[in-house]
Design a protein that fits this description.
elongated; 9% strand; three-stranded antiparallel beta sheet; 4 helices; 183 residues; single chain; mainly alpha
Length: 183
């Protein structure tokens, strides 16, 4: 009986040691997996931050060249149109792609005329540029004034006669622009 008892204890001890080794290996593997996942998460977050910065830069450039950041209402309303296009299935799905849509070398068929007007696209007024960047951040990151154009996907300056305007439904005049939705 003593031998059976000793063997049972030995088996129990060996099983416990083996289980502890497996557990230790599992814990070690879990820590390794956690470190790998943490690295992936950090990489993803860095990529997201970079993408957000690029998107806000494109939005700020559009604000700058479309409105010169002269008024909050103009900046936010033209930005709302860009963001409305981003969420629409009829347009590209990033701010930069919407702003750059239609560009072809030596062509003037861009969605936003400043992007293919043949002029340089570098801001030259530091104050307006800084204000454009602030406006872009406010609407892109915080959603400030989102929806103010009631889903409009097109606009033009109030003084301009757009050849395409009659094919759309006018929403409103906001600031110095007139806004439209598709019929």
């Amino acid at each position: 009986m003593k031998t059976i008892y000793k063997n049972t204890i030995a088996v129990a001890i060996n099983t416990a040691v083996f289980a502890a080794m497996i557990y230790a290996g599992t814990v070690a593997q879990a820590h390794e997996d956690e470190a790998v996942l943490q690295g992936i998460l950090e990489s993803y977050q860095a990529q997201q931050a970079e993408t957000q910065a690029e998107e806000m830069e494109c939005l700020a450039l559009n604000i700058y060249f479309e409105t010169h950041a002269k008024s909050l209402v103009d900046a936010m309303s033209v930005s709302d149109v860009v963001l409305n296009r981003v969420v629409s299935t009829r347009y590209p799905d990033t701010v930069c792609d919407v702003v750059h849509q239609g560009y072809k070398k030596d062509s003037r068929s861009c969605q936003f005329s400043w992007y293919c007007d043949g002029k340089h696209d570098e801001p030259y007024d530091d104050d307006s540029w800084e204000q454009s960047r602030k406006y872009a951040h406010d609407i892109y990151m915080n959603g400030n004034f989102r929806g103010m154009t009631q889903g409009a996907t097109h606009y033009h300056a109030h003084w301009m006669k757009a050849y395409w305007a009659s094919s759309l439904n006018r929403v409103a005049r906001i600031g110095s622009h007139i806004f439209y939705i598709e019929k």
